[in-house]
Amino acid sequence: MDDFYLKQTPYSDPGDLDVTGLPRDPGQLALLVRNVIIHQGDGQRLEYVIPEQRLHEDAESRYVTEILRILRERGDAPLTEAREPEERFVGTCRDFALLHVSLLRATGTPARVRGGFATYFVDGFHEDHWVTEYRLPDGSWRLIDPQVLHPSYDRLDFDPLDVPRDRFLVSGDAWRACRAGEADPGTFGFWSVEGLRGMWFVRGSLVLDLACRGGVETLPWDMWEPLAGLAGLGSLGVDDLALLDAVADAQTDEEVRRLCADPRLAPPREIFSLHLRRVTLPQR
């Protein structure tokens, strides 16, 4: 079977990484990733003060080859060996998911990055978050959250290697719930930043998640107009809302690819990233 999600993208491609010694089990690979990356907000959990420079430099590493280069510069240990915090890549949830997806694809498991909202960080709130989704032999999909495998995340009431769909809502589920009045859009976004929440935020997450499903694994703060920008829903027409509803409902690979080809949704060659910095994306 020619599985689209077995193919590396310009973002997930590990380059010349020798994967012969890596495990093939998705859970073991998730643990491997958890032991070589430290989340920007996890310094206190790991009793490590993250240098300010690394918070900025590592955050803009868009490609797995960049993550691996930084890891090599900070230590010569193999990927299979857990690192001390100072030797790790300083990343976000997206980086955990992207490296995990890269290694899954490289070792024969179809996988993709998924954007959405986690209910397990702040009670009563849906925090913007990114995880791994991989395809099981029977064709179904399972969610893994490599970031929260550390023992300090002890409030979890589920297995991070099999995240329930009601604990992590992929963006399509979040969009449908908000559109149907089953969830409050004001509880979706960043809990710590009141201005970064609401239906416009869910819309942006929906478009970024589609891009990831289509092989453009964006950074969490990437944006482009009209549907992945800052404009409010009031500026969107009936056709735009219908298109976003179709994105939320898309299940098959064929539907995803068709929607990714729509110019209203597809990432342009030049996008805006952190602090509205212009970034040119690679051609696929």
Automatic annotation (TrEMBL):
Record-linked SMART domains: TGc
Domain Transglutaminase-like: 85-148
Matches recorded under InterPro entries: Papain-like_cys_pep_sf, Transglutaminase-like
Domain of life of the organism encoding this protein: Bacteria
Pfam families for the chain: Transglut_core
Xref: SUPFAM superfamilies: Cysteine proteinases (SSF54001)
Protein name: Transglutaminase-like domain-containing protein
